[in-house]
Amino acid sequence: MTQTPFTPRQLITRLAVIALVPLLFIVLFLWGGGWLSPQRLTSDKLVGVLQQAGGEHPGFRRNHAKGICVIGRFISNGNASALSRASVFAAGETPVIGRFAIAGGNPSAPDYAVPVRSLALAFQLANGEQWRTGMNAMPFFPVSTVEQFYELQVASLPDPATGKPNPEKFKAFVQKNPEIMPFLAWAKQNVPSSSWASDRFNSLNAFRFIDKSGAAHLVRWSVVPHTAYQPIGAAQKNDNDFLQKDIQQRLAQGPLQWDLLITVAAKGDDGSHASQVWPADRQTINAGTLELSQATAQQQGPCNDINYDPLILPDGIAASDDPLLNARSAAYAKSYNARTREQAAQTGAH
Amino acid sequence: MKQVAYFHPALRVLHWLMAAAIIAMLFIGVLMVSTISSLHSLLVSIHKPLGMMILVLVVVRLWLRFYTATPALPASLPAWQRAMAHLSHWALYAMMLAQPLIGWAMLSAAGYPVSLGSGFVLPPILPVNNDWYAILRPLHSLVALALFITVMLHLAAALLHALILRDGVFESMSGTRKR
């Protein structure tokens, strides 16, 4: 094989093709993974900034780190089955594994210090499908794009010099993003309740319900408590874990209930801005009752290893055009992968 | 077994179909975990059924590979290249088979429903277990990377045979040798 039938020029061209074809694939692969565009906002960056804000707490969620597991059931009355073919809305019961939490990445933050609370639910449908939803106790989201959310996190990071967020940076963010003003106004007048049991939790993001004919309906949902609102009091402000103790005490007395309300968009309503609520006169459907009956600490609890990815949806529920949904899904997966790895290392199982 | 110059036509079809599917899968995988755009959920929803398709196809392909005559490597090939060729082929088969199973097992261990769309859900093949997920999730990335590197080497070697050596190896799969 010392003789080649090629001229040196032909040989070089052919060798170049052999090298360039795989090289092209490699460059595309690196670009796909974001390694060639460090300025691109990725799920890694989102998780990174949340981790910076809350501090490093291996084995815990990067956001909503402090929480408690609950189990119960959803008793559907069948009212929403005209809008969605998902079996969870047919009249009947679906088991639910849930998690109450407070926002932020610090698993030992005092409960009263965090204004935003959440309830995540995983509905276990009979055919193996699941409906996972992470809801928040605020009426709308502060911003509507991922870039804004990221910049908001960066602007709220504690200054290394003072240990507190730099007010100038935050002001600059607000000036550039006046969209956040209604949220700041809401947060200012909001008096937190004394219990997760009396909080109303909202999907914030819009979704689509797909009915039996395949038609899509733009919706949001909320769970609305049966328990009456009581404002947070002085006693609670002296107890770092009052929310957890309260919910355990209440559940020891008996189950707690919420109504699952579906809000249906009218023609022309926009589902892609989580910072904007639809007008109050929109049709709402009471789809049934969420009944939570038992609470367990999140370590070793059934909710600890659940990633409440809002895009794990059964047939009959689909994502809307809201850009936050994809970002939440991608970032939750990163956080989940990191903390499950840390947990496995901590227990020393492998 | 009789001497043949080409792989069985069904194997050739499967080879090129799977080549496209696997390269698409590798790109979908790396893009879907990094992007936060609306592509994310679309890619995730393609990744699972396409992975299952690859699993089914590789089983059929291995069966065909064992039960049909395969062309011998040319005598002109040095021993080390023969060894590399055999090793890389069995590594490719092993990874094509293992990767969808690892993906399925890791989703099972995390308690994710393995939805193939339209409400069709595959049964879990592992119980929900954090320690298993913590092993399988990074393994899935690692095998993807190893598969990508091996596919690239396979591609470079195929081009070398097609463009320079011209010894019939590339044609045994493309089936385009001029008579």
From TrEMBL, chain A:
Keyword Glycoprotein in the entry? The reply is: no
Q: Quote the InterPro entries the UniProt record gives.
A: Catalase, Catalase_core, Catalase_sf, Catalase_SrpA-type_pred
Enumerate the UniProt keywords alphabetically.
Heme, Iron, Membrane, Metal-binding, Oxidoreductase, Peroxidase, Transmembrane, Transmembrane helix
The GO terms this record gives for MF are:
catalase activity; heme binding; metal ion binding
Q: Give the residues annotated as active site.
A: H64
> Which positions in this protein are listed as binding heme?
Y332
Report which superkingdom the organism of origin falls in: Bacteria
Membrane-spanning residues where?
A: 12-36
One protein family per Pfam: Catalase
Domain Catalase core as annotated: residue spans: 42-350
* Reported function: Has an organic peroxide-dependent peroxidase activity.
- What organism is recorded for this protein? Kosakonia oryzae
**GO CC, alphabetical:** cytoplasm
GO annotation, biological process: hydrogen peroxide catabolic process; response to hydrogen peroxide
Q: Is Kinase there in the keyword field?
A: no
- Per UniProt, the enzyme's principal EC class comes to oxidoreductase
Give the protein's cofactors.
heme
The entry's family comment says: Belongs to the catalase family.
Supply the SUPFAM superfamilies for this chain. Answer: Heme-dependent catalase-like
Give the EC number(s) under which this enzyme is classified. Answer: 1.11.1.-
This one is known as: Catalase-related peroxidase
UniProtKB/TrEMBL annotation, chain B:
Highest taxon in the source lineage: Bacteria
The membrane topology term of the UniProt record is: Multi-pass membrane protein
- The residue range of the signal peptide is none
Write out the GO cellular component annotations. Answer: plasma membrane
The Gene Ontology biological process terms listed for this entry are:
respiratory electron transport chain
**Which cofactors does this gene product need?**
heme b
Keywords, in A-Z order: Cell membrane, Electron transport, Heme, Iron, Membrane, Metal-binding, Transmembrane, Transmembrane helix, Transport
Q: Known InterPro entries for this protein?
A: Cyt_b561_bac/Ni-Hgenase, Cytochrome_b561_oxidase, Di-haem_cyt_TM
Q: Which Pfam families match?
A: Ni_hydr_CYTB
GO function terms (MF aspect):
electron transfer activity; heme binding; metal ion binding
Give compartment(s).
Cell membrane
The UniProt record lists the Cytochrome b561 bacterial/Ni-hydrogenase domain at 7-173
List the transmembrane segments.
Answer: 12-34, 46-64, 101-122, 142-165
Please report which protein family the annotation says this sequence is part of. Belongs to the cytochrome b561 family.
The entry's protein name is: Cytochrome b/b6 domain-containing protein
Organism encoding this protein: Kosakonia oryzae
